[in-house]
């Protein structure tokens, strides 16, 4: 087992992927204390997804980038950036001497190398998906060497599916999961679009050119 370290925790009902930027509104006293500790002690904190009425043992380590606004009430708007993944070994409802939770955690290593052929297939599917959803601008903004983490929140997955993606050990595993998901979802969306188009035509006077025979 690799070495553990104490990490402050901020459980939320969402999945955060490494590299993601996340803006949060902080209002509870315990998490206001956490933000102050991040500022004063330069510590990081973890977001383990809160799923099925329990805190996940896998989570994402976050770095406070800055406090955007502080309200008279003490509430804050903060900007954060996701670093890597960790696994909880021992959970504490309150970190020593703190209002917020904490845990002894170990870092989770990841193999970021993807498969070029899989990425090409995903890119083609993403192009179709974004066209249907009216998100062509997101497709155009995709970097050439995009990772699954870069598109994970725009695939129509629910929180549980996103968490499954987070548990994958390698980029190839993630690519395989995403491709499976897209191959199931795209035909349904395409058929829905066809039905919508057909219903738009119903009731209209159609100007059709008859065949010449």
What is the structure about, briefly put?
Residues 6-184 form the Lon N-terminal domain. By secondary structure, the protein is of the alpha+beta class. It contains six helices and eight strands; from the N terminus they run E-E-H-E-E-E-E-E-E-H-H-H-H-H.
List the SSEs and their pairings:
Elements: E1 5-9, E2 21-26, H1 29-41, E3 45-47, E4 50-51, E5 54-55, E6 58-70, E7 76-92, E8 101-108, H2 116-133, H3 136-141, H4 148-151, H5 159-167, H6 171-201
Parallel strand pairs: 1-3
Antiparallel strand pairs: 1-8, 2-7, 3-6, 4-5, 6-7, 7-8
Helix pairs in contact: 2-6
InterPro entries: Lon_prtase_N, Lon_prtase_N_sf, PUA-like_sf
Protein name: LON peptidase substrate-binding domain-containing protein
Domain Lon N-terminal: 6-184
Can you characterise this structure?
With 213 residues, this protein is an alpha+beta fold. It folds into two domains: 5-108, Roll (Archaeosine Trna-guanine Transglycosylase, Chain: A, domain 4); 116-201, no CATH class. Helices cover 38% and strands 26% of the residues. The strands form two sheets. It has a five-stranded mixed beta barrel with strand order 1-3-6-7-8. It has a two-stranded antiparallel ribbon with strand order 4-5. Strand 6 and strand 7 form a beta hairpin. InterPro entries: Lon_prtase_N, Lon_prtase_N_sf, PUA-like_sf. It holds the Pfam family LON_substr_bdg. It comes from Hymenobacter taeanensis. Residues 6-184 form the Lon N-terminal domain.
């Amino acid at each position: 087992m690799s070495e553990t370290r104490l990490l402050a925790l901020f459980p939320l009902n969402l999945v955060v992927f490494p590299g993601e930027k996340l803006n949060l509104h902080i209002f509870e006293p315990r998490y206001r204390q956490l933000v102050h500790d991040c500022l004063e002690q330069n510590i990081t904190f973890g977001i383990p997804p809160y799923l099925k009425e329990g805190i996940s043992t896998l989570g994402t380590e976050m770095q406070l980038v800055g406090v955007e606004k502080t309200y008279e009430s003490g509430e804050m708007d903060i900007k954060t950036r996701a670093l890597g993944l960790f696994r909880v070994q021992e959970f504490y409802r309150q970190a020593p001497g703190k209002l917020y939770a904490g845990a002894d955690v170990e870092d989770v290593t990841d193999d970021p190398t993807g498969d070029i052929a899989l990425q090409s297939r995903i890119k083609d599917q993403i192009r179709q998906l974004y066209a249907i959803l009216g998100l062509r601008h997101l497709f155009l903004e995709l970097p050439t060497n995009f990772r699954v983490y870069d598109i994970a929140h725009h695939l129509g997955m629910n929180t549980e599916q996103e968490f499954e993606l987070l548990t994958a050990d390698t980029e190839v595993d993630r690519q395989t999961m995403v491709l499976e998901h897209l191959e199931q979802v795209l035909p349904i969306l395409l058929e829905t679009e066809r039905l919508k188009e057909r219903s738009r035509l119903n009731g209209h006077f159609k100007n059709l050119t008859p065949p010449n025979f």
